[in-house]
Structure formats: C-alpha cells, structure tokens
Amino acid sequence: MGRALLSALLPLALLASLARAYYVPGTYPAEFKIGEALQVHVSTLTSFDTELPYEYYSMPCCKPKEGVHRIANTANPGTILEGIRIENSVYNFTMKVKQTGVLACPGGSYGKLTAKDVKTLKRLIDGHYRVNLILDNLPVTVYDLLDEKNEFLRPGFELGFKRDGKYYINNHLVFNVLVYMTHGEYKAARDTYAKSVALESLDARRHAHRHLLASSGSSSSSSSSGSSSSTGSSSSTGAGSTTTDADTPFYMVVGFEVSPCSIHRASSRDIEDIVCGVDDNAHITPQEIVEGADIVYTYDVYWQDSKIKWASRWDAYLRMPGGKVHWFSIVNSLLVVLVMATIVGMILVRTVRRDLQKYESLVVEGGGGPDSREEAGWKLVAGDVFRPPANSASLAVRVGTGVQILAASLVTLLLAALGFLSPAARGALLTVGILCFVCLAGLAGFSAVYVWGLMERSFNNWQGVAARVSLYYPGLNLLIFTVLNLAIVRTGTTGAVPLGMYFSLVLAWFLVSTPLTFLGGMLAIRMPLLDWPVKTNQIPRHVPPAPLAANPTLLFLAAGVLPFGTMFIELYFAMTSLWLGYFYYLFGFVLLIGALTCIINAEISVLCTYVQLCAEDYHWWWRSFSRGASVSLYIGLYALGFMASSLPTLSGALPVFIYLCYMSLFVLAFYYAMGTLGFAASLWFVYAIFKAVKAD
C-alpha cells in the first residue's frame, strides 16, 4: 500500500508531491465577471459527536422560492454512501457587489417556531451540528484562510450555541469571499473547445447529409460547395467570437469564509447593519430558540482580493493539526523501516546460506554432531513441508480475498496520489475504491483457485472455491453494512443508504463481481501447477514440542509489532482526518508507508517461518497467514484506544456502534491483505530454500 532499495523511494516521493494536484487534467476553473450571479449550495448537517448526517432542510430554515432541488453532477455512489446531499440554497451572491442586511427568506422571516421545530433545533445544537455551505466547490469555514498560523481548519460553522441553559441560533451570517483576478483566459479556452466540438459535430452531420444525397442520385456539387462555404464562415465566426477583451476583469473564487452570529430581529423592522465579531455586540440580543419565536435569517456578503491562485486555493483547507510533526515523523519512520528491513534481510540471507553450507558438509563428509543437526533442523522436514494443510479451501479463499483487497487498494492509492481523487471531488475516493474492488474480483478467483490447486495438487471441484471466494468477504461486508443501515434508518438521517443504492450494490456483487470471480478461476485451472522441489512423505512426521523462541503464540504476537510501528503515525493522522472532520490529502505518503509496511511485514513473516521450520514444525501454511495478519490485532486495539482518547464526545450507543462497525470493516480488510502478504512471502521463501537444497 520489493521496494527496499533506496532508489525506489524517488518515484514514490514524487507521488507525494503530486498529491497536491487536485484537479483532473483538462478541466478549467470557473471565472466570473463583475455583476455575475453566484449561488451558494448547502450540504448535509454534520456532527463529530453523533456521526449521523442530516439533510440541511430537515431543520427549520428558509427554502428557495424556486423550490429545493439537488445539484446536478454531485451525486455518485461515494456521496450517497457517505450521506452527502448537496442542494440549492437561499444565499445568492453577485460577483464583487457588497451586500448587507439581505433577507434570506423570501417572505422576510421563517415564521413562528412550533414545538417540533424547537425540539429539532435543540437536538441539533446539543449534538454540535455544523452547517456546511459550498461556493464554487469550496466549503465554507469560520477560520481565516490567509492566516498561516492556523495549524488546522474545519469546514462549516456551528448551527447555534447553548448558554445558561438557553439555546440560541446563528441566524445572521457574514460571508467573506476571497477572489483572484484574471483576464478570462480559462473561459476563452473553454469556449474555444466547446465551439470546436460543436463545429466538428456540425461537419459530421453535413457530411452524412451529402452522402445521403449522393446515394439517392442527387447532384452533390452545389450542396458540397454551399456546405464548404458555410463551414468556412462558421469557422471564421467561431474564431472571431472566442477573442476575449483583455481589459475585462474576471474573478475566480479562491476562498469562502463566514462569521456566524445570533441577532434577535423583528420581521417588521429595518435590518440593522451589524458585522459579527467586529462591532461591540454587547448591546445585541441573541435570537433565542423558543416556541412562537419568529426567526429572521439574514446575511452580508463582502469581497476580498487575494493573491491565492486557483491551483492553490485548497492549500489552506488541507492544513492538519501537527502538520510539521507529521512530516518529521514520517521521514523518521521511513529511515527506521529501511534500516530494519536491511538488517532483517541480511540476517535471513546469511543464516540460510550458512545452513546450506552446513548441509552440504553433512552430505559430502557424512559427519557432524548434534549441533550440526540442530542448525540444519529445517531440512529435516523436507518430506512434510509441502503437505496440504487442513481446510485448504478456506485458506485459499482468504488468500484470494487478500489479493483482491491489495490490488484494489493499490490502484485507488495510485489514482489518489496522482491527484485524480481529491477532496474537491466529493465521494470520488469511495466510488473508485468500490469500483476497483468489484472489477478486480477476477484476481480473487484466480488466486484462490490456483493456491488451492497448489496445495491439493489438483483443480477438481474448483467451482466450490470460486463460489466461496465470491460470497465470503463481500457477504460479510454486506451483512455488517445491512445491520448498520437498519440501525441508522430509523433515525431519519442521510447516513441511511437508500434502497436503490443498496440493491445496486447487491446487483454489482452478483452480476459483475461473481462472474468475474469464476472467470478468474477458469483462467487459473488452465495454468500449469508449480512443481514442488521435494516429494511429500506418505506418513506425516511427528512435530516435537516447540521451544520458547518458536512458540506459535509468541511468534504471532511479535510478528505484528514492527509493521504496526511502521504505519502507526500515518494511521493516527488518517483516523484523525476521518473521524474529526479534517481533510486528508497525503496519499503519496500513504502509498509510501504502505509499501514499506508490506516489505517489513513480508520479511518478518519469512523470519518467523524460518524459526518455525528450524523447530521441525512444518505446519506453516495457516500460521504464516495468521502471523502476517497479526498487525490487524494491533490496529483493532489502537482503534479502541483512539475512540477512548480522541473521540470522548461520542454520545449514545448508536454513534459508538457506527464507529465500531466501520473500524471492524477496516480491520477485517487489513487482516486479509496482510495475511495474504505474509502467506505469499513465506510460500516463496519455503519454495526457494528447498529448491536450493535439491540443487545442492
């Protein structure tokens, strides 16, 4: 998520730097003229205490006079699963036009609050819900985007506050929009591209029309010349229309700030010009939430010229707590992991080479004492080391699942590191992850069937293995997802997945993933089986009691320590961003840390397998998988500690249940992925050393 050499770090470091390129190449930023209209969009209400999002218009607030509707091109599987609903709003801006005391409600005020409205607002305020607004795809924030001293930034603002047992709502918003002046070059380029596409389409239709006339025997000379002249005039007209007046200023939105406050106002009186946080607000009475209160929603709009360019406008939003510590810790972890990987690799190479030399002396000279036998102990199990394990089909299913998870994670992280999956593209990361997992189901079928064939030395009844791998892990995820959705649906939040999306996932599972799994199995049975370097005895060898150094429980617990230490810091920042509302963008470093974790996990798995074989214990198949997966145990324990230390405000049993369900899915994915990696590394190691013995 074999790059042990230092030279392999250079392209991965470049991926980390590319993680700031957030927009897909070929897209253009939006430019606006002075006086051009802009509309703010509203997203779901979110809370870090409940983890249950609600639709914006589920609370008592003003609605647009044209009606509420979803914003086109904002819905995808990722946003639906995350509960994000982006809709139009009552907040309308005019580029570079200052507005003060604007009434948000078409009728002047929302109207008198009912007992139900009061209960809803109090519940949302007690849950510390935040309002999320979006302007030109930028989220609103209460932080100063130009102040570099701010180490972190959260989107949205508090819906209201509680003071002395009374509830108040932030009904007045002061917006500050940061803009960067351009000369319309992006708009001109976009218009030129659109017109060129339109002309190509027009020429294609005319060519088809001339061909139709020619086939019917009509004279095509006049129509051909006429169309050529008209095309030429259209082209010249299009070229002339794309010229942009260089003196006409255009502006791009590069920041969106807000200062919310609570002001009690009467709908029948004039709106007083008050700037939140600037004027002396001691004489201002806040708007209390009580039954019968007539809430007047108002807003101001200010514009501020900025030197922030459009390509850098997300930089301020991507700050995280302890950013400098983050970078230093990652570099330190990289150095430690590289040193440890080199040491472990050298120990294994030198030890195995010494064992082979000792074995050669035993064979050639025919001597050797007890010490020689002990040092060459792993070669004593040559006749049993490739004996098929118990429940080989279950092991093969787990390996196939792990291959699918590793492949889907690698593709998703590569796309994210290259900048194609950014915070600006809401839901894109989850959408691509699901798509990759479904489309790479063929790898799971291929790996599971082939590994099962290796262990059993036959592909008979391979369909059962393919069926199990297609149903096992997706079914387990769907079961947890269904239970979680049933628990959420009664709350009325947007976190509950609609039935349409739910059945779409089920159809993708059965109509796409399952056939691909069987297709992968069909390809696997056409592959020749790898020949083992040694023959398996008919009678199993007795396994002596394991010494303390080769104790299975001790090896299991020790195997996951170093891989977990490798990813600990990155895991902390990723979980902080995920559960505390920060943006996360260091996908290049995630890819780098993931690669190093895989390297050290593979080496530790090989080392533990070597220790086990030296103790004359040949039951390495399942144990190599479990030792590789042991890092998931530490991740699970860390998730519990993170909930207790960093999420103490989770209120109620349902938010805790949501957290535990999502982290269970996360830990389960790590279990299969890292277990598969440990198994594959051990399989390669065992095959290599016994092949070397045979060659000697």
Structure described in brief:
By secondary structure, this protein is α+β, with helices and mostly antiparallel strands. It has helices at 9-18, 77-82, 115-126, 185-215, 221-241, 323-365, 370-375, 392-417, 428-439, 441-456, 462-489, 499-524, 552-559, 561-580, 587-614, 621-628, 631-646, 653-695, and strands at residues 32-33, 37-42, 87-94, 99-103, 111-112, 130-131, 133-135, 138-139, 157-158, 160-163, 166-169, 172-182, 250-261, 294-295, 298-305.
Folded structure, characterized:
The protein is of the alpha+beta class and 696 residues long. The chain folds into three domains: 221 residues, no CATH class; 190 residues, no CATH class; 141 residues, no CATH class. The protein has 18 helices and 15 strands. The chain has a five-stranded mixed beta sheet, with no helix packed on it. The protein has a four-stranded antiparallel beta sheet with strand order 3-2-7-8, with no helix packed on it. β10 and β11 form a beta hairpin. The chain is elongated and about 105 Å long. The N terminus is likely disordered.
